[in-house]
Design brief:
The protein has 191 residues and is an all-alpha fold. The protein is built from eight helices and no strands. The chain has one domain. α4 runs antiparallel to α7. The longest helix is centred in the C-terminal third of the chain and has 30 residues.
Length: 191
Amino acid sequence: MRKIGIVLLMLMPTASLAHPGHGMESGLLAGMEHPLMGIDHIAVMIAVGLWAALKGGRAMWLWPVAFVGMMSIGAALGMAHVPVPFVESGILASLVVIGLMLALAANLPVWLGAALIGVLALFHGHAHGAEAPENIGGLAYMAGFVLATMSLHLVGIGIGLSLRVIKLQPLVRIAGAACVLLGLGLSFNFI
């Protein structure tokens, strides 16, 4: 528990670095680094994994795949400079919506959860794609943020399954409430 707290404290000062102009400019490592540079990205990607583990069954693979697939489409739109309205609002809404799904232990049908996750992922992808370099390094950058995103989903699934085994699954609901508070805090500039 102490290690988790230390990791979270280490990540918190970097929350404002989740957008362009920070760190490496292109390539696989830059893409892998980008989702790890902001607490908003980390929280929602882990939350998707937690919710998928809470639902279980096909949702454990379909919901993360829906996120990554729609995030990739959003990234392609961002790289092509196709405007998508309300990207930043959509990213913040994803924290609140996915957080609420966790906090309420929402038991949506698998297809509906995948659709909801996919719509929210489009905003994350567009933000990543708009920040991607416009050269061959941009493709490696996209591959990097897809790998990092999948890794964060797997972390969420692993935590969710572990909590189920040790009979502490209600902590998933607390994590959902924390995600909602983070989204609201970022939306209203409290964080």
